[in-house]
Amino acid sequence: MNCERCGIDASLTHRDVDGFAYYLCGACVRGWDAVRSVSTDSTDDARSPAR
Ligand SMILES: [Zn+2]
User: Which of 28, 29, 33, 40 meets the CB 3.0–4.6 Å disulfide criterion with 5?
Assistant: First the structure.
């Protein structure tokens, strides 16, 4: 099977994101998790007003 993100042929890990099923390779799963933590942080940032 091919990774749905980078397209390499590898053994994939299932990820369920916003109700959609994605099949990602190990590297992309790690990148995906990192991206999701960053978005959580920026959402938190937007919620704290500077003034
Ligand atoms: Zn990949």
Answer: 28
Closest CA to 25 of 14, 17, 36, 35: 14
Q: How many domains does the chain have?
A: 1
| Single pTM value for the model | 0.60
Cross-strand partners of 23: 14
Query: For residue 10, how far is its CA from the centre of ligand 1 (angstroms)?
Result: 8
- What is the distance in A from the centroid of ligand 1 to the CA of 31? 9
pLDDT reported for residue 18: 82
Q: Which domain holds residue 1?
A: 1-51
Q: How many whole angstroms separate alpha carbon 27 and alpha carbon 42?
A: 23
**Distance from Cα 20 to the centre of ligand 1, integer Å:** 17
